[in-house]
TrEMBL record:
Region ranges (Disordered): 82-107
Protein name: ArsR/SmtB family transcription factor
Transmembrane segments: none
Origin organism lineage: Bacteria, Bacillati, Actinomycetota, Actinomycetes, Micrococcales
Residues annotated as domain HTH arsR-type: 1-81
Species of the source: Citricoccus parietis
Pfam families found in the cross-reference section: HTH_5 (PF01022)
Length: 107
């Protein structure tokens, strides 16, 4: 589920707070139909959940375990791409902070 950059961006955005499909689409720079398809897959995998309010659906990340998994994956990507070295502190922590400057969440 984390092999697609758009899904990684969606999950990271959801760890900042609950969002609608349109808000997520704007945050990740993708069409709402694309985001909706990714959300459907993430929901089936148990990584996100949703609630309905009228005609709108709002999505949230499921739990801290998924957040830690994503933070570790992004930190690992920093080291693989050379954006961070072994001595550098990790930019991605399971505290809800945004991705570090100069890094795309899809790396």
């Amino acid at each position: 589920m984390l092999s697609d950059p758009t899904r990684v961006k969606i999950l990271w955005a959801l760890f900042q707070g609950e969002c609608s499909v349109n808000a997520l689409a704007e945050l990740v720079g993708a069409a709402s139909t694309v985001v909706s398809q990714h959300l459907s897959k993430l929901r089936l995998a148990g990584l996100v959940s949703s609630r309905r309010e009228g005609t709108f659906a709002y999505y949230q990340a499921t739990d801290a375990h998924v957040h830690r998994l994503l933070a570790e994956a992004l930190s690992h990507a920093e080291h693989l791409t050379g954006a961070a070295t072994g001595a550098d502190p990790h930019s991605y922590r399971a505290t809800g902070s945004a991705p570090g400057p100069g890094l795309d969440a899809g790396q």
